[in-house]
Recover the amino acids of this structure.
């Protein structure tokens, strides 16, 4: 074989191998995150929760603590975790030694079997109106990050904190989004930390609260992702047909206005209650079904917001279970996608666990957050559109698995043909 023939033959082999590698690449499945709160005395043990999470196709879970029972149960499951440090621990984290001990005990001890990828330090601290708490936030975040660096974990575990959308002083129109003036200094410090460490900016956004506060100005279809004429941002001329996207882009605009245009934004909480008190307008099972099913459908399309159309939405639905011990109005105890026995709270497009799980309370006494507040835009002017009683259908997990297997079989068949062709040329 001549030198030129050898080069052509090697090129042919490398090209064929590249095609084989492409066909062997994993089949991508739609993913969504879910918040796993545990303020309840009737929840199933974490071992029973693993198949439940997988039944809904979720590959990301956010905890409000670092419950060892949960982290052990999800070992080798492939599910990615955000673990959290409650607000009550922020003062302790000002001590570098305590931060180091926390990271070793609650993160390093479970890696790599359990995929802990992020630590949320505090929840909605800047809108808590507690100056001592907000003063502890940055020292706590910095010391937790330094502890990760000391453990050589900073490249695989990030550090962040979750904010209420009430951190915005202006949210309408989305292009006018701006942070509260009294919080800009604190927000800037947090954003500088994100830039330095490469961590995401987390927002808890609940269109439900905006609707409940002013149902005459905020049409229900607009907050439930139902067909409606939506609104036009007068500055950007961008069209918004749902409030969540408008809230997210208001955050993007607020970030850009203070010099952080390229900051990664994730929605760490959003959801809708299936039950509420008499004065909690809109807290119904049908509305919760529409909101969460439509939300999951939109996330599955991997489309961004009007202002960031090429950025996939990273959303964590609140919450996995109804939590019967949460204080506050009835709605606070009825955000769950599932009942404690593992059956869906309402039709979701996935069946949950066929055999109901035993309602054994999981351990863990750390404070866990519920839902965040949401600021109501100063003036919403969506046009009334036609209402739909249905909701966007989503693919069940069983259907997704069947599709993946069929795709894999087809790919393997093609690979076999390519291999035969390859060896015939040797």
């Amino acid at each position: 074989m001549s030198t030129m023939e050898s080069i052509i033959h090697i090129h042919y082999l490398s090209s064929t191998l590249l095609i084989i590698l492409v066909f062997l690449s994993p089949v991508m499945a739609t993913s969504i995150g879910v918040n796993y709160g545990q303020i309840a005395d009737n929840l199933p043990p974490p071992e029973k929760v693993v198949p439940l999470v997988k039944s809904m196709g979720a590959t990301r879970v956010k905890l409000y603590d670092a419950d060892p029972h949960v982290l052990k149960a999800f070992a080798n499951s492939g599910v990615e975790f955000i673990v959290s440090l409650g607000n009550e621990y922020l003062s302790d984290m000002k001590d570098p030694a305590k931060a180091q001990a926390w990271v070793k005990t609650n993160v390093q001890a479970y890696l790599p079997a359990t995929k802990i990828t992020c630590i949320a330090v505090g929840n909605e601290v800047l809108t808590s109106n507690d100056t001592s708490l907000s003063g502890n936030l940055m020292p706590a975040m910095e010391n937790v990050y330094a502890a990760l660096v000391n453990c050589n974990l900073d490249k695989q575990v990030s550090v962040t904190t979750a904010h209420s959308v009430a951190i915005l002083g202006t949210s309408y129109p989305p292009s006018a989004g701006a942070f509260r003036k009294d919080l800009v200094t604190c927000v800037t410090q947090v954003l500088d930390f994100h830039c330095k460490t490469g961590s995401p900016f987390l927002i808890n956004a609940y269109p439900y609260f905006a609707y409940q506060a002013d149902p005459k100005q905020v049409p229900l279809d607009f907050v439930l992702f139902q067909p409606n004429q939506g609104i036009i941002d007068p500055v950007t001329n961008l069209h918004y047909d749902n409030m969540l996207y408008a809230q997210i882009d208001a955050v993007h605009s607020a970030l850009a206005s203070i010099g952080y245009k390229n900051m990664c934004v994730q929605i760490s909480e959003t959801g809708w209650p299936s039950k509420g008190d008499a004065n909690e307008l809109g807290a119904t099972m049908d509305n919760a079904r529409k909101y969460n099913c439509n939300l999951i459908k939109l996330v599955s399309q991997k489309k961004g917001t009007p202002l960031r159309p090429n950025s996939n939405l990273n959303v964590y639905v609140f919450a996995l279970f109804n939590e019967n011990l949460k204080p506050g109005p009835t709605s606070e105890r009825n955000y769950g996608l599932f009942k404690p026995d593992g059956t869906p709270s309402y039709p979701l497009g996935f069946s949950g666990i066929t055999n109901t799980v035993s309602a054994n309370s999981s351990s863990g006494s750390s404070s866990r957050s519920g839902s965040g507040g949401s600021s109501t835009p100063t003036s919403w002017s969506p046009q009334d559109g036609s209402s739909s009683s249905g909701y966007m259908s989503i693919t069940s997990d069983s259907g997704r698995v069947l599709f993946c297997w069929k795709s894999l079989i087809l790919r393997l068949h093609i690979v076999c043909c390519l291999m035969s062709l390859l060896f015939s040329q040797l």
Residues 50 and 298 are 24 Å apart (CA to CA). The radius of gyration is 24 Å. The first strand starts at residue 33 and ends at 36. The chain is about 35% helix and 10% strand.
